[in-house]
Write a structure and sequence with these properties.
Blueprint: E1 3-9, E2 14-20, E3 25-31, H1 36-59, E4 66-73, H2 79-92, E5 97-101, H3 103-110, E6 116-121, E7 125-130, E8 136-140, H4 152-170, H5 175-184, H6 189-198, H7 208-216, H8 220-243, E9 251-256, H9 264-277, E10 281-284, H10 290-304
Parallel strand pairs: 1-4, 4-5, 6-9, 9-10
Antiparallel strand pairs: 1-2, 2-3, 6-7, 7-8
Helix pairs in contact: 1-2, 3-10, 4-8, 7-8, 8-9
Length: about 300
């Protein structure tokens, strides 16, 4: 029996699906983050390799039984970046047909056919859409240096900035500031700043749950941060609605990513913003996991190879 591999790699983890030639999911596995903008190209390639190796090892499948691999990676939107990742993976998986796309591409395939927009809200943020004629467009997804508005990274960054500025003005910590220091285990803002300067991705996204917990406890500052987050994510969808001219056409509207379902307040506010900017959008769920969508794309690649 022959197999294909599909991988969904983001800023926090990589998920892998090993699919049989009969279309049956054989096994699923996980690896580390695979966004080359965050962990470097070598790190991203290693995460893909490790997740794929774990799946093959669990299933007892050898590399020569795998026909194709499709990896949808956050941070691979730039053609040069995608080509570099493909070369690295061709070295890791010689003789296997390989396709590199973005995690946004995977979600669009996973939502089904027809006009659709998928909003991703996780470590990073972005949205991808398709009109009824198959024309595609995307916004965001370029990493925190160029955007990621409304992402977990962005929320954590704004939370720490607000708490730190308050401490600088008053010499006192806000309730949210105290939560941040307790969660990170740092004794002072000086130590936490040094940690952020060394590895911002190890700090900011992990502060999102702290903000969620604070809001649930009635913290007004945390609530404002989540409101700003919902508005920023809504703007991504608004841009796509206008670009794809979906203002008066029905289309599927899906939300996915690690931030969705974590905060009742954020979910409610986000839905309100989405109804406002996309009045003809019909809320929908992904029909399959993005890693499975990648595996289905790998099947198509294997057929053409």
């Amino acid at each position: 029996m022959r197999y294909v591999l599909g991988l969904d790699g983001g800023g926090t983890k990589t998920e892998c699906v090993l699919l049989g030639e009969d279309g049956r999911i054989i096994v699923e596995s996980r690896g580390g983050p695979a966004n080359p903008n965050r962990v470097g190209f070598a790190g991203a390639a290693a995460a893909v390799r490790d997740a794929a190796a774990a799946a093959m090892r669990t299933a007892g499948v050898s590399a020569d039984q795998v026909r194709a691999l499709c990896a949808g990676l956050a941070g691979a939107a730039n053609p040069d970046s995608a080509q570099k990742m493909k070369r690295l993976l061709e070295e890791e998986f010689p003789g296997i047909a390989i396709r590199i796309c973005t995690d946004l591409d995977l979600t669009l395939k996973a939502v089904g056919e027809g006009a659709a927009i998928v909003l991703i809200a996780g470590t990073g943020s972005g949205a991808v859409g398709r009109d009824a004629h198959g024309q595609m467009a995307r916004v965001g997804g370029y990493g925190y240096l160029l955007g990621d508005e409304g992402s977990a990274h962005h929320v954590g960054q704004r939370a720490m900035n607000a708490a730190l500025r308050h401490f600088e003005r008053t010499g006192l910590d806000t309730p949210l500031g105290k939560r941040i220091l307790a969660e990170t285990g740092e004794p002072s803002w000086a130590e936490l700043q040094a940690r952020v300067n060394a590895a911002p991705d190890d700090v900011f996204p992990r502060l999102f749950p702290v903000v969620v917990q604070a809001e649930a406890s009635g913290d007004a500052a945390a609530r404002r941060l989540l409101e700003e987050c919902a508005a920023a994510l809504g703007e991504l969808v608004k841009d796509l609605v206008e670009r794809l001219q979906l203002q008066t056409q029905r289309f599927l509207l899906a939300r996915t990513g690690g931030m969705i379902g974590r905060s009742r307040y954020l979910d409610e506010r986000l839905n309100e913003h989405l109804r406002k900017v996309a009045p003809f959008g019909q809320f929908a769920e992904l029909t399959m996991h993005p890693a499975e969508a990648a595996a289905r794309m790998a099947v198509e690649l294997a057929v053409r190879a």
